[in-house]
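ok so i was messing around last nite and threw this chain in just to see what happens. nothing serious, just curious
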Amino acid sequence: MSRIPQSFIDDLLNRLDIVEVVDHRVKLKKTGKNYAACCPFHDEKTPSFSVSPDKQFYYCFGCGASGNAIGFLMEYERQGFVDAVENLAKTAGMQVPREETTESREQHFKQKNLYTILEKASDFYQAQLKDNPKRDPAVHYLQDRGLSGAIAKQFGMGYAPQGWDNLLIKYGLTEEDIGLLVDSGLVIRRDDNNKLYDRFRHRIMFPIRDTRGRAIGFGGRVLDDSKPKYLNSPETDVFHKGRELYGLYEARQNTRNLEQLLVVEGYMDVIALAQYGINNAVATLGTACGEDHLKLAFRYVHEVVFCFDGDNAGRSAAKRALLNSLTSMEDGRQIKFLFLAEGQDPDTLVRQIGTERFLEQIKTAIPLEDFLFDATAEGIDIHTMDGRARFSKVAAPLLNKIPLGVYRELMFTNLAKRTGLSSATIMELTAEKVQLANVAPTDTPTTLPNEPSPPSTSEQPPANDTYANNELHPGLPPAEPEVDYEAEYGSLFQGETPAVGHPPSGPFRKKTNITLNPVTAATLLLLDNPPLLQQLTEEQQLTTQPTDDVELRRLFNLIEYLHTRPNSNFNTLLGFWGGAYGIDAQQELAQMLATHELTRNTSLATFESTKVLCHAFDKIRHQYSTQDLNRELAELKTKGLKNLTADEKDRFRALIQSYRPKTSTDS
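result:
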């Protein structure tokens, strides 16, 4: 059998989310921006298997297993490459080409050429904004909107000059080139007379980039009274507007640990917010936010906030987004809705109230669960029996669209409390067809699959399952036990017991499998989480002292750097490290941060990290004190007892009394 076309494999991997692929087979737990589990490919008790939604890649720090979604399925289910691709394609609703025909090879080659011509067009539009003698209307428009040259460059904004054939003259040199311009949507070919002309003319240009940063299409904002005001590229072999989010690439470039996405309505909203330092905004491309948009968003964040106008049109758009969101509400995800005052949009509002107040507005966004129940109760008096019955018939089928999990169960429990109905009665309503008020039927998915009322008993957790042990909330996972800091993080640090004095007091005593020099531990913790230093009191801080120890001197330099630049992040610190000590030291440090248990321990929360850092500082101070005492004792011994003064003899006796020889129990 001929090999599967590479173009199909690329498309398949773009549509899949490796987190979903792995989580269906190995239960994952969110750990920062990645997901973790015990490795399915070797025996272990602590998780070392990491899945990155950002890179769509898995890696085990224990056995070194790594790869993409296809590789995981091949290893986990012991399938061949073709079988793994076919199974994943079935999940994504795609048909695998049975053989690589000449047509499929040409398709792959054509896609590569489309990316090339679109990048050339993007460069052309940016050059026109800078150099075209008739660019003044475009420049004035951007200036009037308060945009800087830096933000325009960041988003690759450009200008499509007046005229019918600018791109044709520039790039349409052969029939093949013209075909690419037409297929990319940059040039229109009229059916009646075969006439060619540029699609975008006298417009501000916004390149639309995929998650790899490649130009795949454009949006254009007109600079005169022409219609339409905004014009987008048509669907092409590389551009599918229902699966792309404008600004997502830029958001990921600007924020290392992206946790939230703010979904707004237009290009200018995204760019204006970025101008004001709010770099997590994205926009759909003239369509309602659908399941594919959310699947893409949740690859990179765990929270999505929709931003809408507060008028009727905005609330109708919010309801469409609500209906499209329900199937994406897996445990650990959150969706909220922010409604602005009528007539406001993010672009104008952020200019009026500034960054801080706008961020405060985002914090007031309504969670999906509240908006869903409010929307379904519109026009219904839920204080009457009839009203509660009608409310239940609207809400229950919507809740049935939520994936199985704790969140879904909580939503049904909430509905039962609001209506006074039993869970069994509510489950009988889940197959009803529903439509929210003020949303046109064509805009909403109105039918639901017919499912059995209650899940079968075989799907329920057994009575002795851990899920049955939560006394306050039966059927929910038990509360996390309190961390025993003594047992969990007792003796994190290696090294000999000091010859003079005693170890510092504190809660850390018992052994763990983490053994670090306290200097290395403190360095790793501060680089991994710089704000930890600001959480320490003045007494807990470590003061700089002269030392010949290279590692300790580097720690002191790091502390001084953080005091002078308290807002530093990992990237700036790693840059500082490379600049101060060389690229090899930088790479060595980055590797240690990525692989050491201290910085990837999922249970080591900020509070615990602070305690560990304090203990490391205590150990360092104690080592300094020990060194000073030993040095002083050695100097007194060198003088000889008969040559000491009375005060020196008293000091010598005190040092001798504090001396505690090392025993076998100290190791």
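not much to say yet. The longest strand covers residues 215-222.
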